[in-house]
Amino acid sequence: MGEIVPMKTVPLSLLKPGDSAVVVNVYGCPRLRSKLYSIGIAPGVVVKVVEKYSRGPVILEVNGARIAVGSNMASKIFVKQTFRVS
């Protein structure tokens, strides 16, 4: 087993398909945060980018469900990737 190395916090919009990360914070107005929390995107939750369109939605896998969020919303969700180093 290797050591888990935390990476820096970045917007979800910068991840590529196949990348997984833990949500650290959601920025934006209370209404936006409430909407994202209600669909399962909240601090501490692991999300995986399934598909990403250049100017369209980002398709995520969250707790076994697929969820689409707009690119603007994705830029307000900050995540931290971790990698296992052997």
Structure report:
With 86 residues, this protein is of the alpha+beta class. The protein has one domain (3-85): SH3 type barrels (Roll), CATH 2.30.30. Helices cover 15% and strands 49% of the residues. It is built from 2 helices and 6 strands. The chain has helices at 30-38, 71-74, and strands spanning 3-11, 20-26, 46-52, 58-62, 65-69, 77-85. It has a 6-stranded antiparallel beta sheet. Strand 3 (46-52) and strand 4 (58-62) form a beta hairpin. It is globular. The termini are close together. The mean pLDDT is 89.
How are the SSEs placed, and which strands pair?
Blueprint: E1 3-11, E2 20-26, H1 30-38, E3 46-52, E4 58-62, E5 65-69, H2 71-74, E6 77-85
Antiparallel strand pairs: 1-6, 2-3, 2-6, 3-4, 4-5
So what's the overall shape? globular
- What is the number of helices? 2
- State the end-to-end CA separation: 6 Å
> In percent, how helical is the residue content?
10-25%
Q: Which ranges are low-confidence, i.e. pLDDT below 50, for 5 or more consecutive residues?
A: none
Gyration radius, in Å = 13 Å
Short descriptors:
86 residues, alpha+beta, SH3 type barrels, six-stranded antiparallel beta sheet, 6 strands, 49% strand, globular
